[in-house]
Amino acid sequence: MSTATLSRGTPSSQGLTPQTRPHLHFLDGIRGIAAFLVVVTHMWGHCFLRTGETAYPLWFRALSVFKYGHYLVAVFIVLSGFCLMLPAVMAGGVMKNGVVSYIKRRARRILPPYYAALAIAAGLMALFPMLRIDDGTIFSPYHRSDMAGSLVTHLLLIHNWIPHWTHRFDGPMWSVATEWQIYFVFPLMLLPLWRKWGAIAPIALGLALGFCTVGTILEDACFWYIGLFAMGMAACSYCFPGKTDTEVSRFWTWPRLWGVFAVVAVVMLGVARKSHHLMLPCTDVIAGVLAAYLLIYCTQKASAGESPLVLRFFSSRPVTMLGMFSYSLYLLHLPLLYIGKTLLMPHQYSAPINFLIYAVVGTPLILGITYAFHRIFERPFMNAPNPKAATAPTAAKALNNA
Fold first, then answer.
1. Cα dist. 120→49, 132, 317, 335 in Å?
2. pLDDT tens digits, 287-332
3. Going along 68-153, which residue ranges are E strands?
């Protein structure tokens, strides 16, 4: 799999039918790289957040790019909107087999590995008393909350509503809860808005609803991701236009798209300067727009049979294979870092040494363990159980695994 390919069909002015639904290999690659960088971000934070820049200034500055790992979650959300929108686009703007069937598919795909990872994280807390010491960061699974209430809200996937419970057990699970809730908003609100008023309406309403939660108890849930999910929807409908969308798609040439990004960036940064609470949602919007543009670029190049470097990278076999178990990697890596914390703490190594140990020893172990977790708890519930099969029927199902 050296280049991105379309298993069947290409975007056209006539739109796509379910029989020509493509499998875009680079989507797996983008997902895999994003998940891997989240792991490195948490390694960096685990080692350097407590010591700060003054203790290890050269290391801190050299690796400080990883402190922006939060924005990779925006990439996941936009990618999810893109993938889940594709079957709706090709079904004429409706949910194939209805909303109930769609929710069942999402639950089967998302919940089994989620609950398995939650059980493992809770078991680690019970096994290692050291993990029940609250250090006030995402790397403490205790994080200022009682066990019972936090566990119940995690089981219901509403823990992202309560600040003290958001990062309990397994920090990255907050974004799984947010995305799970967006799954319901998609068919009930975003898709009807898209059918009636086009791509801008769900983006605008999603961002408006999200920005209304800034400064409230719901701020940590990042509900402006609803707007980012809608950006993924817009990118998909742009790349795979139906007959009624053709003229609109032709209007949005790359110069105009980048012009829109420049305006969005200026507006968002201007708004962010008004309040520190607005900095994160505004920069998330910028990251979301860039992610949508990346998806548009790669899709257009792949459909044209071109293979620029970025497309070859995201479509390369190691990267796409990483993407196949990226959800398991995302779910389980932090509990594995908790174990590393208990093993390294008695030795009192410096932050740079801890980071090197995590990178050289921890990374292969994390990848191996999370792949085994994927085979046991995730792959049996995926719609396409054999990702190596490139036949049209399995390719047609693969995008549901986003």
1. 25, 15, 30, 8
2. 999 999 999 999 989 988 888 999 999 999 999 999 999 999 999 9
3. none
CA–CA gap between residue 239 and residue 85 (Å, rounded): 11
38-42, 134-138, 287-291, 328-332: lowest mean pLDDT where? 134-138
Inter-axis angle of helices 363-373 and 98-127, nearest 10: 130
**Could you tell me which residues come within 8 angstroms of residue 111 by beta carbon, excluding any fewer than 6 positions away?**
none
Global pTM reads 0.86
Task: Please give the mean pLDDT across all residues of the chain.
Answer: 82
**Contact criterion met (CB below 8 Å) for 24 and 16:** no
CA–CA dist 363, 367 (Å, integer): 6
Q: How far apart are CA 191 and CA 187, in angstroms?
A: 5
Query: What is the sign of the dihedral through the CA atoms of 281, 159, 183 and 179?
Result: positive
> What distances in angstroms separate CA 248 from CA 64, 199, 230, 342, 364, one per listed residue?
41, 10, 17, 56, 47
pLDDT in tens, 158-216: 999 988 888 888 889 999 999 999 999 999 999 999 988 888 899 999 999 999 999 89
Q: Which residues contact 240 (CB under 8 A, 6 or more apart)?
A: 11, 15, 16, 86, 89, 90
